[in-house]
Each structure stands twice: as C-alpha cells, then as structure tokens.
Amino acid sequence: MKASEKNREKEQAMTEKRMLIVDSELLEKIDQNRGDMSRTEFLKFLIDSQLGEEEKTSAREYVSREEFEEFAQGMKDLLRRFLDFFISYGMELGEEPKDRTFAELVKKLQSLANTGGKPKPTR
Fold it and tell me: Structural domain of residue 41, as residue ranges?
C-alpha cells in the first residue's frame, strides 16, 4: 500500500507541474541572475514583482487634492520669493522702474504677501 500511495503522490506532483520552453539565451540569463533560487522560484519572483509594480502604479495615477494644494501653495511661495528678490534687487541698484510692468509686479507681490500666498480676486 505504501508504494501505491507514493505513486499517487508522484502523479499528483507531476500534474501540478508544466513545462515551459524558452530560448537558451534566456535560460542562461536566468541562471546568471537567480543566485540561490531555483529557476521556478526566480521566475515566480520576477513575475510577482513585475505584476506588483503594475498594480501599484495603476492604482495611483492621480495626485490627491491635498498634494495638489500643497504643490500650488509651494509654487505661490516660490513666485512670491522670486518677485521679492527681483524687486529688492532692482531697488538696491537705485534705479526707478520706468515701465508699468514693474508696478504691476509690485502690486501682485503685495497682494500675495497680504493674503498669505493667495492672490486677491481681480474685478
């Protein structure tokens, strides 16, 4: 009886395994990179890691509202510091601006400073 049980176990194990035919170059590449893993373990690892990466990236295609608002606030702060730098640089040179663009930039900077980075609505 013991011999028949072993035969059944072998038959069951054989039905669970399948043969995969690959190019010899691919087999060499697998053998070079698998380390201590068996070929089966290595292929399973590669497939699982690749499919896991796809699930992670496809699940998160968009930024959250909080992330976007944080980004927008950072850009406003950067713009304010940029304008502040160039306005103060121009004033240090002692030259008065002659065009209307500079006055508009000063107004915009002041409105950003007064509203904490949020521009005032224009009418």
Answer: 2-59
